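Long-time lurker. I teach an intro course on protein structure, and each term I like to show students one example going from raw sequence to a predicted 3D structure in token notation. This year I'd like something fresh instead of my usual example. Would anyone be willing to generate the tokens for the chain below so I can use it in lecture? Attribution to the forum is fine with me.
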Amino acid sequence: MNPRVYSRRNGSTSSVACATVFFLIVGLTLTAIMAHVVGTMVMSADAIDDVRATRAVEAAVSSLKSRISAITSDNSVWDDAYAASVGADPVGWAYENWAKTSTDYPLYDGVVVADQSGNPYSSYLKGEKFDAVFMFGTTLQHQIDKATQGGTKPVVEFLATNGRIFLVSTNAIQPFASSAGLPGRHHVLSFIKELTPAVLDAEAQQHNLDGLRLTQAAETGQLKVNITNTAGGVVGTLIWHAQHPGQELYRAVRPYIYLAIAILIVFLMAVLVCGGLEAKRLKALAAVAQREAAQDSLTGLFNRTGLMQQVGTLQNLRENDGLLTLHLIDLDGFKAVNDAWGHAVGDELIKQVGQALAALSPAIECAARFGGDEFALLQRGAMTSKIDEVVLDIFRVPFSVSGRTVEVGASIGTATATATVEPLEILRQADIALYRAKEDGKGRVVHYDLLLDVERERVSLLEADLREAIVKGDITPVFQPLVSAADGTMQGVEALARWNGANGRISPEIFIPLAEKAGLIDALGRLMLSSSIAHAKRWPSLYLSVNVSPLQLCSPDFPLVVLTILDKESFDPHRLTLEITEGVLMSNPDQARRSIESLKRVGVRFALDDFGSGYASIGALRTFGFDRVKIDRSLVIALEEEQNGEDVLKATVLLATALNIPVTAEGIENTAQADILRAAGCDQFQGYLMGRPMLACDIDEELSNTNCPHSRVVHEENSGTGEYGLAVA
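-- Reply from a regular --
Happy to contribute to a lecture. Here you go:
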């Protein structure tokens, strides 16, 4: 035989022998453990049953005491018994009702009735008279004396005499109506129950006890429970046989234990035979599972885990210092595709996008899908804008999915790093760049640089400051007059949010969008509405106009928030106008309509802000029932900057007036604009020409200086651009 073949076979034999010895040791160990477990179970079962039996005996004793106590209470707290005890013949009554029945009554064997001084005058045991004091001695006398004081709870005591043990329950005889505490001493009723073998047998049968009997001292090999009196003295001992259920159980299952050991030996032998084959199968399955764990099931591309592994692999190659570029791609408009055509079309679109990205360029090391509509491309080397342009070109052509033409766009964030940067950090950098690309308007490519992290940190700190400012109430309202276009009298004010931070004033154009993104817009809205109304209560001749964020209006809780603040401040809902923009009518028209209708029912008015800058239709104006529209400031500015600006403005105003909706023009800075707007049909003005945003105290002063609630508020014309204020309710 070839020595090498022999050596291999000998090595295999040695391996099998070692495995056999190992599994035999394991088998013997398991057998020993099994024997130990069985022995422990047997002893534990016996111990548990002993505890059960002991508790059962204690429960039986407690039950005897409870039963005799209950029958004593029923017979002693009894109007008839009390009347008889203080009547002409208490002895006869006691005999007829208690003593006579003691002959064979199951609940008691004897009865002792004593007068107020504790002297027994009726004592019967099993229907026969007996001397209770002689039989039980001073212990019973003390128990009777204690009970003469009254009270509803019987005194229950174990008494031993002449080798017999009795359970005695004593209570004062008293009327039911005065059982809570009748003054003076009472006649006393005592019931006696002897612990006879018959009584103990009944308890033993009820509680599954073997050989329960009474003795004066414990016996070896027996379980016991001492019977004690209230002073703690032992008056007797109950003993019974332990049943040893654990040993009986072991005898029943012993053949099966031997059979289990035999099966274990056979199993060990089968393991030796099948182990090798199973190991090979599991190794193959592990390889498949490893591939699947790194692969997206829908597209067949790498998933996030697989991509991170590929990044690590490229970095370990150290080619060009492990320099690589990660491109994160997020589809723009994919949710609309799912909503319009369903998930089946969406999944097919994802597959087509994945195929296109995988075949994009030889420079791409691999493509991946992170889930949803987010993809990634891993490029070896430095970033090149050509790759991102090719990616964008893919989405400039519509996709054909199941006979449908589907258009989606893409936003791209990229990050370039060497092998010294951790894969997750590269992913984070690309993700920040992608977020900025989508923020900048989608369909864009943004490459990561440190300024993005700086900006993110700045926004994070600003968000924390905003959260704190809302809690402290540091964001306050200012008010800009709304005046009549006909005579210039002030009709109302619009509340505008202002925040003077630690480093100076922060524009509403910054902190309002931040509040919406950070989930703080509801808290900010409640603060502004509440504080604005608190000031406006002082101006009963003016109505208050407050802007509403689209996120608030689309919240189901928004009407309740507004009504709660109105009720708390006792503010007339008819004086409140909430301004909303056209966009909310498109984003969630159903919820917006429900909120508007709910508040209009109590008198709150609604104005459509920035009218003419968006896409509000005549149908929307009619459906939502606006009480007023506000001409967008851009139309006012266009009066001087565009040749046809006046025509556009007049047409916009004419549309609103044709629907009988009053029109407010905002952003008016000179009299020429005011004249044109007045002639066009606007009945209300707002702007620097009429008054700058001012503090509440300034409004107080304006109203007090005129001696008239409708004063003309016209400030000096400012030729600069109007201040843009944004407030929320």
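Some talking points for your students: The longest helix spans residues 3-76. The chain is about 50% helix and 20% strand.
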